[in-house]
């Protein structure tokens, strides 16, 4: 009897992990990129179950690399982090643009993403949304902070925060009047520029309250009043502005950093058809507008602006003059090997006293 | 005979999942990491055997410097944990009645249930410039400007201490429970003072508990990631953060793996050294 029970239990243990046959779509994406309401709508329309894993650029690459592109049907990396990854470890498969409803996309954005993710004649991504990295400022406490240099201005000593990751190195370079993107084909010159950036950030480290590490800690540090001038994402800045009108997103004079997040299909995706279905679903005008209204990031969907809330448009107008828009620095693909230079610089800054 | 056979089937049914778990989820990945820690890519992009990943640690002062700093803090937190935990453990086992001790131990356990991330965020609310503690001090008029507590070494040490302290309390409690009160009474009758009793009887007796608690706390702290990352602020580069960035930012898995093994070996060496210095045996401490 005992033996039978044990057997039954062990059989149950081994089989309970097997899911019941139902089509699923596994997506690895950023928090907020797959709103619950849209997931439910998609599941109802198609009968496909959607499983979401939250992540960021670095983890997405590491996870897909570990499995050589298996485990997920769809990923959402930034467009500048695709080609060098694909060249080193083939974790994605080329996009079949015939299956993408390209009519509903902003053509210039689609072209830019196609060009930036080109590896050996094939492109690997579809644009989804875009945004900028700039400053989030408490305008009551720091009314004059309007450029990257505010992040090392002694006036705001002890009330400054930024994320110690590659965007701050790029931003500091722009703030110092340089153009790091122009040096992407000259690694020695880029190293020199990074040394200059490192010096600046170490010299002014004592002004920094803390380095924020995520979307949540970014919002937290400015909302709580622990910092008054921080680097941040436009959508997050506008989100805080709604709660505290003193705080707002500011496009830096030397150029906000523009990013585009995309859809890319992992090499060993199991449900490629569902992935394309999801891409077309998320980029349809109404769904894309729902996403933008909720998360406040710009969308690559052509028809969406018609369905956007007035408030979203107002946010954008408040933070960007036409010159600011013209001056957005869209990030070109990162060349292979550059992340190693930047990582050492970041380590040295963090360890410095 | 029948009895023995039945035992065998049960035995195998129980041992096979454990072995599978150990081999597939622990031994194999470690072997894979160990191999990749000895590999670098040559100019043709092939993996070749090399010690460069390990040498990188010793050749770059930022890496071994960070390790030394991390280990130093881990020792410091372990000492602090002992200083705070010992009176707690002593109070719970020897001073108050068993009836209340159970309840108090339960209260001690609560922070463990909610998880490290939540407690870390809890400390952020308490320690911030506009947090509970500063608000309270301002309200009482004891300070007129918020004290900078969050994102400093202080807040990091508090976070590390809070998540690891319990692992010091429990082993000490276990050894103290077996200490017969008669020893203390006898010493007292023979004219020993409180301090003598404490240093000559209680501490030596509870040494195995203290050492096993210290090993757990030290290992937890040196391998922690969350508290230094979130509470630590701008100077708190922890060795685990460097391993993380090797894997996730520079995609240099070889060096990341090498650093992981260095953390394992160096921290084990420190524990071994501590055991030697304190004259304890691992087998005795482990029981």
Helix amount of chain A: 40-55%
Instruction: Supply the helix-strand structural class of chain A.
Output: alpha/beta
Low-confidence stretches of chain A: 15-21
Assign the CATH topology of the largest domain in chain A: D-Maltodextrin-Binding Protein, domain 2
CATH class of the largest domain in chain A: Alpha Beta
How many runs of DSSP E, i.e. beta strands of chain B?
A: 2
Largest sheet of chain B: 2 strands, antiparallel
- Oligomeric state of the chains in view: heterodimer
Number of domains of chain A: 2
* Helicity of chain B, as a percent range: over 70%
Query: What topology, given as strand order, has the largest sheet of chain B?
Result: 1-2
What is the global morphology of chain A?
A: globular
Mean pLDDT across the residues of chain A is 91
How many domains in all of chain B?
1
Keywords for this entry:
heterodimer; A: 353 residues; alpha/beta; D-Maltodextrin-Binding Protein, domain 2; 2 domains; 8-stranded mixed β-sheet; 3-stranded parallel β-sheet; 14 helices; 13 strands; globular; B: 287 residues; mainly alpha; MetI-like fold; two-stranded antiparallel ribbon
Provide an overview of this structure:
The complex is a heterodimer of chains A (353) and B (287). Chain A is built from 14 helices and 13 strands. Chain A is of the alpha/beta class. Chain A has 2 domains: 22-130 and 260-322, 3-Layer(aba) Sandwich (D-Maltodextrin-Binding Protein, domain 2), CATH 3.40.190; 131-258 and 328-351, D-Maltodextrin-Binding Protein, domain 2 (3-Layer(aba) Sandwich). In chain A, helix 2 links the parallel strand 1 (24-29) and strand 2. Chain A is globular, with a radius of gyration of 22 Å. In chain A, 45% of the residues are buried. With 287 residues, chain B is mainly α.
């Amino acid at each position: 009897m005992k033996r039978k029970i044990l057997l039954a239990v062990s059989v149950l243990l081994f089989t309970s992990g097997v899911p019941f046959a139902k089509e699923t779509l596994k997506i690895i994406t950023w928090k907020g990129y797959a709103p619950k309401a849209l997931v439910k709508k998609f599941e109802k329309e198609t009968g496909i179950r959607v499983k979401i894993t939250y992540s960021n650029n670095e983890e997405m690459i590491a996870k897909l690399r570990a499995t050589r592109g298996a485990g997920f049907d769809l990923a959402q990396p930034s467009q500048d982090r695709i080609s060098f990854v694909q060249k080193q470890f083939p974790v994605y498969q080329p996009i079949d643009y015939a299956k993408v409803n390209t009519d509903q996309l902003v053509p210039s954005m689609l072209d830019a993403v196609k060009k930036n993710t080109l590896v050996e004649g094939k492109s690997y991504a579809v644009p989804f949304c875009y945004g900028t990295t700039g400053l989030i400022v408490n305008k009551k406490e720091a009314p004059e902070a309007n450029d990257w240099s505010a992040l090392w201005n002694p006036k705001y000593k002890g009330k400054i925060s930024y994320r110690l990751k590659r965007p701050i190195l790029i931003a500091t370079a722009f703030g110092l009047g340089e153009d790091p993107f122009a040096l992407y084909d000259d690694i020695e010159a880029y190293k020199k520029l990074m040394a200059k950036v490192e010096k600046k950030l170490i010299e002014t480290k004592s002004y920094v309250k803390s380095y924020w590490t995520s979307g949540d800690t970014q919002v937290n540090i400015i909302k709580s009043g622990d910092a008054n001038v921080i680097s941040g994402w436009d959508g997050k800045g506008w989100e805080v502005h709604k709660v505290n009108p003193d705080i707002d997103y500011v496009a830096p004079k030397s150029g906000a950093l523009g990013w585009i997040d995309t859809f890319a299909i992992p090499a060993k995706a199991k449900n490629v058809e569902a992935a394309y279905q999801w891409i077309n679903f998320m980029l349809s005008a109404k769904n894309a507008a729902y996403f933008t209204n909720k998360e406040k990031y710009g969308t690559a969907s052509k028809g969406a602006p018609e369905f956007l809330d007035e408030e979203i448009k107002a946010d954008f107008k408040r933070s960007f003059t036409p010159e600011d828009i013209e001056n957005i620095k869209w990030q070109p693909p990162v060349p292979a090997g550059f992340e190693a230079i930047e990582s050492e610089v970041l380590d040295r800054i963090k360890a410095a006293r | 005979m029948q009895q023995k056979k039945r035992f065998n089937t049960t035995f195998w049914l129980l041992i096979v999942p454990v072995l599978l778990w150990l081999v597939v989820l622990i031994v194999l990945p470690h072997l894979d990491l160990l191999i990749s820690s000895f590999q670098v890519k040559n100019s043709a992009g092939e993996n070749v055997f090399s010690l460069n990943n390990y040498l990188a640690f010793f050749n770059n002062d930022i890496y071994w410097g960070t390790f030394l700093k991390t280990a130093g803090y881990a020792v410091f937190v372990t000492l602090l944990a002992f200083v705070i935990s010992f009176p707690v453990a002593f109070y719970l086992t020897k001073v108050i009645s068993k009836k209340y001790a159970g309840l108090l131990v339960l209260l001690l356990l609560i922070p463990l249930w909610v998880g490290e991330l939540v407690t870390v965020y809890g400390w952020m609310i308490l320690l911030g410039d506009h947090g509970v503690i500063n608000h309270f001090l301002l309200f009482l008029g004891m300070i007129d400007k918020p004290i900078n507590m969050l994102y400093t070494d202080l807040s990091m040490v508090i976070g590390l201490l809070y998540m690891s302290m319990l692992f010091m309390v429990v082993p000490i409690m276990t050894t103290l429970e077996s200490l017969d009160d008669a020893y203390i009474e006898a010493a007292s009758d023979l004219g020993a003072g409180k301090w003598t009793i404490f240093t000559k009887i209680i501490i030596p007796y509870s040494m195995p508990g203290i050492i096993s608690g210290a090993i757990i706390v030290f290992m937890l702290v040196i391998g922690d990631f969350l508290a230094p990352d979130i509470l630590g602020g701008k100077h708190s580069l922890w060795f685990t953060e460097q391993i993380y960035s090797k894997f996730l930012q520079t995609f240099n898995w070889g060096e990341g793996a090498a650093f992981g093994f260095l953390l394992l070996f160096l921290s084990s060496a420190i524990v071994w050294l501590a055991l030697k210095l304190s004259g304890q045996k691992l087998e005795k401490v482990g029981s």
